[in-house]
């Protein structure tokens, strides 16, 4: 009976991954077309905001010359604009445009297939590098001291270099570290100290990486939608809903691996990445009869 339950659980997990992969391939094609269509008008918006600022500046001789020809004091115009908070409105347009541009960049990276050559990657070194970058990047971004969290490393010494594209894997790890940090930050103030566990494991035919946190966790409904493009539980302006989608695409499409998540409310979250081993490692890992 136990074997039967395990088989059913494994089958359901496999079906869930297959459905998610189909979604990602479909959305990948749409994302490329959408991104290029959005990019042109978006570029015009940001360029014109910059031009408006330049044409209101008293530092440009052409502006002063035109104002004098029309009998207008440029300083008076700028005082009026300040009084009506027009510069703040321009700031809002520029910030919204920059956010949209970031989404477009994510969409393009989501849709592109990797053409880079796979090379042996030292996973512990990649993980350490991602942790260092995360510590410098996320402190101010989310108002949270990433470096103050306990980072526990559990690296399998039997796992050697794994084929991969280092910068893409680093991007995935950064996304997972960011999500872990935010999940810890959202807990109650009297919770236990924040903890992120980073694991590697040799589990033929896979090399496994796990990023586990003791954050707020997520419901089953949210967990099932974790890798959907544009799905996010964050407030408006705090997330694009593409970070984990791009990560899933990098692992499953570009590296022919697997990515899954286990979580429950109040129980933290654990992301598992599986990357195919190189052939020599597969042979070495096989038991001798």
Automatic annotation (TrEMBL):
It catalyses: ATP + protein L-histidine = ADP + protein N-phospho-L-histidine. It comes from the Bacteria. GO terms for molecular function: protein histidine kinase activity. PANTHER family: SENSOR HISTIDINE KINASE (PTHR43065), TWO-COMPONENT SENSOR PPRA (PTHR43065:SF42). It holds the Pfam family HATPase_c. Keywords: Kinase, Phosphoprotein, Transferase. This is histidine kinase. Its EC number is 2.7.13.3. Gene3D superfamilies: 1.10.287.130, Histidine kinase-like ATPase, C-terminal domain. Residues 33-279 form the Histidine kinase domain. It is an enzyme of class 2 (transferase). The gene is atoS_1.
């Amino acid at each position: 009976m136990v074997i039967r339950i395990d088989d059913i659980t494994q089958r359901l997990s496999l079906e869930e991954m297959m459905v998610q992969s189909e979604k990602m391939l479909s959305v990948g094609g749409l994302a490329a077309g959408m991104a290029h269509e959005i990019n042109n008008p978006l570029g015009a918006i940001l360029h014109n905001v910059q031009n408006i600022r330049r044409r209101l500046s008293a530092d440009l001789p052409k502006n002063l010359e035109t104002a004098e020809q029309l009998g207008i004091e440029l300083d008076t115009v700028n005082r009026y604009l300040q009084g009506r908070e027009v510069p703040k409105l321009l700031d809002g347009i520029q910030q919204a445009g920059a956010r949209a541009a970031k989404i477009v960049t994510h969409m393009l990276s989501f849709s592109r297939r990797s053409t880079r050559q796979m090379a042996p990657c030292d996973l512990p070194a990649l993980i350490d590098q991602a942790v260092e970058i995360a510590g410098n990047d996320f402190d101010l971004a989310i108002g949270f001291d990433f470096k103050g969290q306990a980072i526990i490393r559990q690296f399998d010494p039997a796992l050697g270099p794994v084929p991969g594209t280092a910068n893409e894997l680093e991007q995935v790890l950064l996304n997972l570290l960011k999500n872990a940090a935010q999940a810890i930050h959202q807990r109650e103030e009297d919770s236990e100290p924040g903890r992120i566990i980073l694991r590697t494991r040799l589990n033929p035919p896979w090399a496994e990486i796990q990023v586990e946190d003791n954050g707020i966790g997520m419901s089953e409904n949210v967990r099932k939608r974790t890798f959907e493009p544009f799905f996010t539980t964050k407030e408006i302006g705090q997330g694009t809903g593409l970070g984990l989608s791009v990560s899933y695409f990098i692992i499953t499409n570009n590296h022919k691996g697997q990515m899954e998540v286990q979580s429950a409310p109040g129980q933290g979250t654990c992301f598992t990445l599986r990357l195919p081993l190189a052939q020599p490692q597969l042979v070495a890992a096989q038991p001798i009869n």
